[in-house]
Design goal:
The chain has 272 residues and is an all-alpha fold. Helices cover 78% and strands 0% of the residues. It is built from 13 helices and no strands.
């Protein structure tokens, strides 16, 4: 009987209509955070994503395929989620749902996105410097195999430049494909009342995104600084113009339009 009860707890699901209400309530809470708290929670968020990614890149450096190693990456996302930290790509879906539900205003949405992105960027740059400094003894020794993989990954991430506007649009496309999945981490965390269930449901879309090599703006906020410090043939201009900006646009579209609007619409606004 106890085993049956435990199974029920793990598998207990929440209907989509109730999930919408929980997400709208989350958006209202996010809208009330002061600027300093958005910055702090955003700052603390990015390093945990980076920890998960570093484990993945270390596995790749050891010869494990990215499609397998990438399944470890969600550990960082789960950690930041349970710590109540702020990742802009999740808010790209949550805040629009709150706006449509009337729990937040458009100004509060933009304010949340702007300060969270700022905090994410600061956290990414800090972690990148600390990681590089610690592993290279402040540049006294060459980058290790993991840092070299990160550098090569960053170089590949700006290869869009070779294809002009088509490449820039492809970066947007990879951003859309990424955050259509990643923002589901926030959404699907509301699909169960079980802690184990939440972990599993968040792990699935996050693991798929990383294993497929799509583009995530917050991940790139630490990856590029780390790569540049480690000697990657990438300029700050290439990082921002040929990756960070188009990827952010794609991430916003994937979350706000596909999950924050269409998914919201079909479960709340459509008349039966």
């Amino acid at each position: 009987m106890a085993n049956e009860a435990n199974a029920g707890i793990v598998l207990e699901t929440v209907p989509p209509a109730e999930m919408v209400g929980a997400l709208a309530a989350d958006a209202a809470k996010k809208a009330k955070f002061g600027t300093i708290h958005l910055l702090i929670r955003g700052f603390l968020c990015t390093p945990f994503l980076a920890y998960g990614a570093c484990v993945t890149f270390a596995m790749v450096a050891a010869g494990i395929p990215l499609g397998v190693a990438g399944l470890v990456f969600p550990a960082g996302y789960v950690t930041l989620s349970f710590l109540g930290l702020e990742m802009a790509t999740g808010s790209f879906a949550t805040m629009p749902i709150g706006m449509y539900a009337g729990t937040v205003t458009p100004f509060q949405l933009v304010r949340n996105w702007a300060w969270t992105l700022g905090g994410n960027l600061l956290g990414g740059i800090f972690f990148a410097w600390l990681l590089w400094f610690s592993l290279t003894k402040g540049g006294a020794i060459p980058p290790d195999s993991m840092l070299k993989v990160i550098a090569k990954t960053a170089e590949a991430k700006v290869s869009y430049i070779h294809y002009g506007m088509l490449g820039w649009c492809a970066a947007i496309g990879k951003g859309v494909l990424c955050n259509w999945l990643v923002s589901l981490g926030s959404v699907m965390s509301k699909a169960t009342r079980s802690t184990v269930g939440r972990v599993v449901l968040m792990w699935i879309p996050i693991g798929m995104f990383f294993a497929l090599g799509f583009e995530h703006t917050v991940v790139n906020m630490w990856l590029f600084p780390t790569a540049i410090l480690s000697g990657a043939n990438v300029s700050i201009y290439e990082w921002w113009v040929w990756n960070q900006i188009p990827v952010t646009i794609g991430n916003i579209f994937g979350a706000m339009v596909l999950n924050g609007t269409l998914w919201y619409y079909t479960h709340t606004l459509q008349k039966e």
